[in-house]
Write the structure tokens for this entry.
Amino acid sequence: MITDLLTKELFMESLEATQKTEAIEAMIDRLEESGKLNDRRKYAEAVFHREAEFSTGIGMGIAIPHGKSDGVTTPSLVFARSQKGVEFESMDDEPAYLLFLVAVPEAGGDEHLRILSMLSRKLMHQAVRDELMKAQNYEDVIRILGES
Amino acid sequence: MKIVAVTACPTGIAHTYMAAEALQIAANEMDINMKVETRGSVGAENELTESDIEAADAVIIAADTNVPLERFAGKKLVKVSVKDAIKNAKGLIEDTKTASVYGSDLLEQVASVKQEKKSKQPAFYKHLMTGVSFMIPFVVAGGILIALSFIFGIQAFQEEGTVAAALMTIGGGSAFALMVPILAGYIAYSIADRPGLVPGMVGGMLAASIGAGFLGGLLAGFFAGYTVEALKKAIKLPKTLQGLMPVLILPVLSTLIVGLGMIYIIGGPVSAINTALNNWLSGMSGTNGFILGIILGAMMAFDMGGPINKAAYAFGAGTLVAGQPSMVMAAVMAAGMVPPLGIALATTLAKKKFTAEEYEAGKAAYALGASFITEGAIPFAAADPARVIPAIVIGSSLAGGLSMLFNCGLAVPHGGLFVLFIPNAVTNLLMYVVSIIAGSAVTAAILVAIKPNKRD
């Protein structure tokens, strides 16, 4: 279930940061506050290491920073929305408005990976992105992402 | 237009699937048939099958990890980073039109030329070899078990309840009975995939039961395979009924068509040939023995278990009067031993001219030939009828003719090498052995001369 990954406190309705590093740090903060991490440094390292390979700003206003690390206790997903846009070194050089931070433990089942793969596929559709921008609350977000 | 694609990224969580979806969306918009294999952290999903790849016009690899490409050799291939597929899937699809064929470096070129050579060998040959390679173990297992039954005495298997009878039931009654159905079934399988198996095996079984032998089986296999292919194309069902195709419509229709064809189109002429040959042969008693030996020898080898072989064997067995040696029977058995022996000898002399599988089967063919189990030659003849049948026909007719010329006689209808040691079963034993060896040597020599190299 998407609600297992993206719990209510992991929805950030309006992100303040406009720079990539700040934005990612803010999202990791949220993970830590919600008790999803046991080693923040380790997980952050994994995320930034992945970012260094090439940016996860895939264009179309989306960024999916992600890290797989044993610094993660529970598979989780932070969804942050930015009104101003975050400079994310995206492929299309446009700012990102919909940011998803994925945290996955090193070991563990496939179930959450399947959910994330479904999410990834959904985000490729224009209609889904438009609706996410307009979502009023957490319930809206879950409805949009949960629909198949 | 059909495109297959593989997407993969280092973490295998997000980009793999985004790229896959992007390609799918673009393909839908461009009205292109697209199948995408995702290699993410849950492993490969929606995997491309061999037939997917074969049917594809082009291949897109959108990956930042190592994706093995061998299976795409000979296909137009575009290889890009996973992000290119997310960014510009439509452009990628456009690019495939002008893409170069994978395998164009020098080293790969050699490999792909070889590959191409293989794939350019008429598909016909590939189907034939599939059938033959599935059949070989049946021939070997059945033949050796029959030969084992002879150890208990040439006629021992006729005594019910004995080990010899059991061996004959296993080898002759079962393994050999499956030989032609397996040949036909897997030829059809090679042509039409799984749906081909049913009409192929049933057609092969009918070929055996109407007495059409392995040549009838070859025919049944190809007939079945192409019938299924034609039905697949001809029958268009609404999507909701498509599930019925593989379980109901294809098997029933194709088996019906092939079965009726075997019985009414092939069956009639086969039994007519058999009757005509029987009559012709019985009118020949009294002709020159050498010529009769040559004719019977050629008939024994020609279709190995088909109508012509059966007529010759029945004619030979008919000349046996209890306990009395028959020259005709001797000629028939000599001629029946030559095909596997001659082929076995050829595999020993010219290993290169046979596939690795045939080379191994050649060893068993010695034992089968020595036991007068002519069927040991069938896999070789089925794989290359145009060369093997003439070679064995010439060798067998020589053996048959010589056996008659030397006045050799045989008092039992079967047994091969085993009977040679039974006192009084064979007359003029030495020259009988010479006849068989001469025939086998000629067959082997012809095969070595005319078969092309199969291996380097």
In short: The mean pLDDT of chain B is 86. The longest strand of chain B covers residues 33-40. The interface with chain A takes residues 10-18, 20-22, 25, 38, 40-42, 64, 81, 83, 86-87 of chain B (CB under 8 Å).
